[in-house]
Q: What sequence folds into this?
């Protein structure tokens, strides 16, 4: 089980999230829903040890994760940030190899596995990441995160700015990673249809706090509930 408990923190003296708690069972995909600016990205950064922490904890498999981001990654926590942040002047293969090497995994094996898992990247293996489309960069960001061999993967707005055909591919990738690899996934999203394709339940965030836990189907069947919780 992956668990964020009573997460409180932000940036310097500005508190963004407060007492936010989330659980993701082993082998589960869970959505984190909320409007822009409610704290979803900050909660993910909290989980990765990237912001100032006032209170709370992050644990995996019943053990609290170490404070350093690099050690959290080595402990099994993967992260694909909003905006992707690939290394634009490295090739696709070099991006994947760098992630593997940083976490003491075999670079050649990681690249070969990624190109097998993500056929879309194979013809682009020697292309600079900065030359890829937004959708291709998103897939590369996921492949790079997987090169760290995570048990839990945090995906922050994976469909943002992506064309519909690639969104379908990303949904398929998430389901494959979950079912065939047993990777637990927490995905921050605003696209309810996408969430229905990959997850059965969701947490809703507002003003830095978790305000509800609902099933995706309940949201989709209740327009009033969607308006109240998400304002969309």
A:
């Amino acid at each position: 089980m992956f668990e964020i408990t009573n997460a409180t923190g932000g940036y310097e003296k500005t508190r963004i999230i407060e007492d936010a708690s989330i659980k993701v069972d082993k082998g589960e995909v869970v959505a984190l829903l909320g409007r822009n600016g409610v704290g979803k990205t900050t909660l993910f950064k909290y989980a990765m040890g990237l912001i100032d922490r006032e209170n709370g904890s992050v644990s995996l498999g019943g053990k609290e994760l170490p404070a350093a981001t690099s050690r959290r990654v080595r402990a099994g926590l993967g992260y694909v940030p909003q905006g992707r942040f690939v290394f634009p002047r490295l090739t696709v293969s070099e991006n994947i190899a760098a992630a593997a090497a940083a976490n003491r995994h075999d670079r050649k094996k990681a690249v070969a596995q990624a190109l097998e898992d993500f056929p879309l990247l194979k013809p682009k293996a020697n292309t600079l990441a900065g030359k890829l489309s937004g959708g291709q960069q998103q897939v590369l960001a996921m492949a790079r995160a997987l090169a760290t061999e995570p048990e839990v993967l945090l995906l922050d707005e994976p469909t943002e700015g992506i064309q519909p055909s690639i969104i379908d591919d990303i949904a398929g990738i998430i389901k494959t990673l979950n079912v065939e690899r047993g990777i637990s996934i927490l995905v921050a999203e605003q696209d309810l249809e996408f969430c229905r394709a990959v997850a059965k339940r969701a947490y809703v965030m507002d003003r830095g706090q978790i305000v509800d836990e609902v099933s995706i189907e309940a949201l989709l069947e209740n327009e009033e509930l969607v308006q109240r919780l998400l304002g969309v």
